[in-house]
Amino acid sequence: MHAMMCTRPDLCFAVGMVSRYRSNPGPNHWVAVKRILRYLKGTSDLALCYHGGSLRLVGYGDADGSADRDECKSTLGYAFLLGGAAIYLVQQEAALHLFSIMEAEYVTCTSAV
Q1: What proportion of the chain, given as a percentage, has pLDDT over 70?
Q2: Which structural domain, as residue segments, surrounds residue 23?
Q3: Which of 8, 23, 30, 107 is the most exposed place for a label (fewest CB within 10 A)?
C-alpha cells in the first residue's frame, strides 16, 4: 500500500474501498478490481513530477459521511503536497461511528496534524 500511495496516489481511494472486502469479496468487488487493473494498464505512462520553483507545503483534508453503508462508518482522507505534488496521502475508515459530517471533518483535521 505504501508504494502505491507514493507512486500512484490516483489509485488510493479505489484500492482502499475494494480492500475493505478482501476477506469476503463478492462479484461486484471483482468487477471493481478488474476496472482498477484496466485503468492501471491504460495509465502506465503517468508519473509524479516535481518541478523547480516554490516548494510550498500545503495540506488538504476531507471526509464523507457514512460512505461505508455496510458498517455506517465515514471515510477520512488527507494529503500533503510539496511544490504541487503529493508527498503524503492517507485514506482510512473512521475507527468510530461519527454522527455528523462536521464531526468527521474535525476528526480528519486532527488526524492530519
Answers
A1: 84
A2: 1-47
A3: 23
Residues 75 and 34 in one domain: no
DSSP, collapsed to helix, strand or coil, labels residue 87 as strand
Same domain, 64 and 80: yes
DSSP state, 9? Answer: G
Rounded Cα distance between 97 and 113, Å, is 21
**What integer pLDDT is reported at residue 67 of this predicted model?**
56
- Do 12 and 60 lie in one domain? The reply is no
40 and 2 in a common domain: yes
The structure's pTM equals 0.59
Distance separating alpha carbons of residues 51 and 94, to the nearest angstrom: 35
Asked whether 71 and 47 are in contact (CB, 8 A), the reply is: no
Are 41 and 57 part of one and the same domain? no
